Amino acid sequence: MRGVIGAWRIVRLLVHGAHGLAIIVFRFGAYSAAQRHARIQWWSAELLRLIGITLHAQGTPRPGAKLVVSNHVSWLDIAAIHAVIPEAHFVSKADVKQWPLIGRLVVGAGTLFIEREKKRDALRVVHQMAEALRDGDTVAVFPEGTTGDGRTLLPFHANLLHAAVTTSTPVQPVVLRFFDAEHAISPLAEFLGETTLAQSAWRFVCSSGLNVEVRVLPAQSTAHADRRALAAHLRETIAAELPTA
What we know:
- With about 240 residues, the protein is an alpha/beta fold.
- It has a single domain (about 1-240), classed as Glycerol-3-phosphate (1)-acyltransferase (3-Layer(aba) Sandwich).
- It is about 40% helix and about 15% strand.
- It is built from 8 helices and 7 strands, in the order ααββαβαβαβαβαβα.
- It has a 7-stranded mixed β-sheet with strand order 1-7-6-2-5-3-4.
- Strand 3 (about 90-95), helix 4 (about 100-110) and strand 4 (about 110-115) form a beta-alpha-beta unit.
- Helix 1 (about 1-25) packs antiparallel against helix 2 (about 35-50) and helix 1 (about 1-25) runs parallel beside helix 4.
- It starts with a helix and ends in a 6-residue tail after the last helix.
């Protein structure tokens, strides 16, 4: 039965993805910023619903320029945050551009891409981030650099935080948590090791009663901050909001 439900959800997701792609190609350029944000928010929330995931949002994003910093659990994290903070321009690893359908959608949403294998590429992305923040935009990063198990946070890399420090832009921590009736942190959302995108997607669409919580914490000042100390502080702040069991 779960396989049938999963197959039906896949069909609906493909239609939803094609709809999003059509908007990106034919209409997105004519939208105002407010219209783009509204469309991104609707599309992301609908994606979660079609997969069978219930969204729980807490907290209020600050208006204007900010650097959103979140823990990283799954390839669905961007959709979960966009359902709450649709104005965010994410920094993502470059190979996401090659993912079927998803790559074209995230490009259209204004994602900034970084080639993590090239150390000098981080400097280029930091300059792009700083320019966006000065223009009043919202940028979002996953400072762990890769997905974790949702329970224990990996070390936070400080490099990308430099954009917020140099522009004195507030940082807004966000806590992501996937949970279900039996687990405060659901193992279904794990995207680790040799797990492929297809395997993870199939696990999601065959699931039942899965939830994602997006908790927006109060924004914090970066004026005169040391980026490494800021990274450590943000990691502690987010870790304190995750269940310990």
